[in-house]
Amino acid sequence: MPRPFLVDRRQGVVVTTWQGEGLCSYARLELEEYLLLCALQGLTQWRALQLNPLLIEEDLNHHVPPLCLFAVPPTTQEYALLLEEPQICRGCLQFYCCLGAEEEIRVVQQVIDHVTHHLAAT
Questions:
Q1: Which residues of the chain have pLDDT under 50?
Q2: R_g (Cα) of the chain, nearest Å
Q3: Which terminus of the chain has a smaller tally of CB atoms within 10 A, N or C?
Q4: In which domain, by residue range, is 64 found?
Q5: How does pLDDT run across 2-22, given as a tens digit for each residue?
Q6: d(Cα 65, Cα 54) in Å, to the nearest integer?
Q7: Helical segments of 4-101, H only
Q8: Among 97, 101, 118, 99, which Cα is nearest to 40's?
Q9: Terminal CA-to-CA distance of the chain, rounded, Å?
């Protein structure tokens, strides 16, 4: 699985805990924070698919810039690096807002802000 969540227009969002404990340990996240972040990212993408019937799941993937939680890193280790300083690139913020998922992307950003604050405090 290239990322900890999968999105399917008909079936919804699947979040996996596979390697989640290791990712959390490396990034100093609580498992609950990690799972919430993954679920919210998946729900943001699912909402975009629901609002835009011409989109397909592959349209939501990007590889540049690599410092974005919506990027699809080729390895779990590279995803772990994204969790050290989680962020969403400007392109994704604009993309999801234009697709009608502005509320969902706002909530993802709030969770990232919470996690970032938590990481800074530890």
A1: none
A2: 14
A3: C
A4: 5-121
A5: 678 999 999 999 999 989 999
A6: 24
A7: 20-27, 31-51, 76-84, 90-98
A8: 101
A9: 30
Determine the Cα–Cα distance for residues 83 and 78; give it in Å rounded to an integer.
9
Q: How far is CA 121 from CA 12, 29, 88, 117, in A?
A: 35, 12, 21, 6
Structure tokens at 91: 């392109």
Question: How far apart are the C-alpha atoms of 29 and 33, rounded to whole Å?
Answer: 6
Residue pair 89/64 in contact (Cβ under 8 Å)? The answer is no
Is residue 3 classed as helix, strand or coil in its secondary structure? coil
C-alpha distances in Å from residue 68, one per residue of 32, 61, 78:
20, 11, 11
20-36: pLDDT as tens digits: 999 999 999 999 999 99
The C-alpha atoms of residue 24 and residue 93 are separated, in whole angstroms, by 24
Q: Write down the pTM of the prediction.
A: 0.92
Q: How many domains does the chain have?
A: 1
Q: Closest Cα to residue 20, out of 11, 8, 33?
A: 33
How far out from the chain centre does Cα 33 lie? 12
